[in-house]
Amino acid sequence: MASITSLAEAVADLVHDGDQVALEGFTHLIPFAAGHEIIRQGRKGLTLVRMTPDLIYDQLIGAGCARKLIFSWGGNPGVGSLHRFRDAVQHSWPVPLEIEEHSHAGMANRYVAGASGLPFAVLRGYTGTDLPRQTDTIKPITCPFTGETLTAVPALNPDVAIIHAQRADRKGNVQLWGITGVQKEAVLAAKRSLVTVEEIVDELEPRPNAVTLPSWVVTRVAEVPQGAHPSYAHDYYVRDNEYYKAWDGIGRDREEFQRWLEEVVR
Amino acid sequence: MASITSLAEAVADLVHDGDQVALEGFTHLIPFAAGHEIIRQGRKGLTLVRMTPDLIYDQLIGAGCARKLIFSWGGNPGVGSLHRFRDAVQHSWPVPLEIEEHSHAGMANRYVAGASGLPFAVLRGYTGTDLPRQTDTIKPITCPFTGETLTAVPALNPDVAIIHAQRADRKGNVQLWGITGVQKEAVLAAKRSLVTVEEIVDELEPRPNAVTLPSWVVTRVAEVPQGAHPSYAHDYYVRDNEYYKAWDGIGRDREEFQRWLEEVVR
Amino acid sequence: MTYTTDEMMTVAAARVLKDGTSCFVGIGLPSTAANLARATHAPDLVLIYESGCIGAKPDRLPLSIGDGILAETADSLVSVPEIFNYWLQPGRIDVGFLGAAQLDRYGNINTTVIGDYADPKVRLPGAGGAPEIAASCKEVVIVVRQSRRTFLDKLDFITSVGQDDRSAFSGAGPRMIITDLGVLRPVDGEFTLTQLHPGVEVSQAIEATGWDLKVSPDLAETPPPTGAELTALRKLAG
Amino acid sequence: MTYTTDEMMTVAAARVLKDGTSCFVGIGLPSTAANLARATHAPDLVLIYESGCIGAKPDRLPLSIGDGILAETADSLVSVPEIFNYWLQPGRIDVGFLGAAQLDRYGNINTTVIGDYADPKVRLPGAGGAPEIAASCKEVVIVVRQSRRTFLDKLDFITSVGQDDRSAFSGAGPRMIITDLGVLRPVDGEFTLTQLHPGVEVSQAIEATGWDLKVSPDLAETPPPTGAELTALRKLAG
Predict the structure, then answer these.
(1) What is the mean pLDDT of residues B140-149?
(2) Can you tell me which residues the record assigns to a coiled coil (chains A, B) (predicted)?
């Protein structure tokens, strides 16, 4: 059963230096507050996993928390590039960043395999691209019935998955809706999980298109209103698009970024 | 885009002698009316696919529509045996019935592979059981990353999938809720699909736990109120449990069954 | 209160389910026992049905594993592929509760066929969810009436695997067979009578077993059903 | 009405989407064009976004492929694994609409890296959904501004596959590259200029292409944007 604690306590207990950590949320419900708490607590050597690294990983990478990134699309959606990510890959600043690069379909299926207790997943993917030459977690596999060659990718089973949801009840059952991405798979694939929520309520009344994660598959729940800002929480608040645009300027410059880090996060 | 026609027309157009046909619905929303229409139209030589054959396939098998059954659990749920299924397997009455037998997990994954455009699915299943000795659509597969041996099963891609749903709109978008089983997978895996619905409405307002199949992946929609009777349609009617119990007596006896067929179906 | 042997069996089965654990519930007797547990000592028992209902809380016995009351009361309702792939297969469920048409001393279960597969004497329903429940739950409890027709020296078909060889599985396999006569537990991999229900003789259990049943030297007696248990069970059964 | 070259490009791209078909919409320019098509001649165009929104009907341009307005207006909202596995991968989507950082004469796209992969000059965002969109949609349309920085003789990295060898794919691959100057279509597998937008010279297109651009002898001219198209586009862009 999930226990309900503060965000600081949850991050201190669940996220350790060197862990493989997945913060998921596909454009929507990105767990920014939890990411900032990881920066504040000064975690190092993390392997960060995420389909769309987005600003949240730009910030974690720029803060020097990560030694490796497993991902499929690293941009500032609708705006442009992630400059801290670029700087780490191109100039090893502030520390070198190893990358393990996939496509969205591959990453999604890696989480599916992880959630399913399988060591790998099969897809039609990567064929003809240069990705398999660079990424050794992409291998061919032969169908035992048709002889056709497909692609296999290994399961992702992060040490910790962190997601943000609209709400939880007092037992720690979690409910999220709108675009739900790969959050269910990330939580079910991970060894431990932390869910930050907009609010804790007495009763989770059913909603269309909702995913409910029962308390017994969640390790910790922390109430963090606005915990997905500057991304959005469907039916709570909209995306702060100005923040995304402003980030382009902040992230572009190392000193500007460090000032932001000191003033806003630490 | 789905076209909306009568049930008789839809079955005449979509279901041909010798086809592989999947009528799905896991305890709930079983497309009985469509099954009876197949009997009335005298289809022969069908390969029937279904996780839980249930009374509907007992009736189709007894009526001589099937030459083969692909399944994972053939009983009268909560009551006992399927006597027409037994009679066909044990005594080839009214015609011999070939069987291809899986577990639920295997069948579910075969539909998933079919819906996903993959030739096979991987699962942890069947190990140590006698099923692989009897069923040649169960094969070992080795993980290219860990070397572990798992089980592969081939995709199911029926010629026709038939399901029952609560409602459709006038464009042929289909909505079902409650226990939704493998219906989405069956429709997406099949070459053609028929959905019978309780009612056709102007607008499909969103509902918790609903599956919506857009019109462009459905071939035909037919309005058939009570089309899942004697099974149930969540929020429309409950299971007719007396019918299930009474079936034990009807199905047990060939003559009794044939009388039922003449009087009730034909 | 007087009670039937079936009621004793169901009560004994319900008692093994600990509060706060999760249970994958097979059709028939197991469902009755799991629901009784939730109605008595284990209100936070998580009932999981293969129809996709997670955390179902029915206030009457479901008519089938896909009864609408399971969907209405579930914490989470998922597709059938998902229940097998995301919930059962990874070994996250504590107890699998299974019935059996036939079983042997190792806890192997046959629900497929009596006689030859290609030319069967009796064709049974088949596997359903059982092979993967037996493989993947952390442990398995079998609830079945004890008789020579059911407890066999040798099975015609293995539908789900018992204690024979667990090396391929994450789960521990069957840990208990609860019958209308008593309880069998594996001793060196062989199911041995370790407990008798009140009023049952060892000889009855031996008589009702198709293999040479071993009897534990520390044979325990099941406490009889309490009034509360019987009341709850009869209320459930409606 | 006067219009910009970007508006011409977007209008030209919107026009190729037939009403009643389905379109997997990539981020950026493709999303604008697809939404314009739905707002003009193709009201029943089915827009599919990789965030899991099927049949989205936004009345303004989404800020990203996961904008809440896509979820609110979708016919069906599914998980990210499902959108790739059940919807994209089987080849049931008619058109994939992609952008590109770089492309070559075969319609191969690079959105991964400029320079050496291990020691990049510029690290680009990466693959996202593109490799499987390019592989699995029945056909692909690329919408991109034409310049020597983008239209290259040789790519540093192939992120998604063009017309080179389609034997491994169910889809036909890129069938059209729509730019701010004109339209390129494959002739014997090589993208050839087949259409110019009004007021654009062939020499401009050749100048803006990093390979020796072939020009069709039957070069067509794109009809200029209509007032209705421009009005709809500007309304969408807000």
Answers:
(1) 98
(2) none
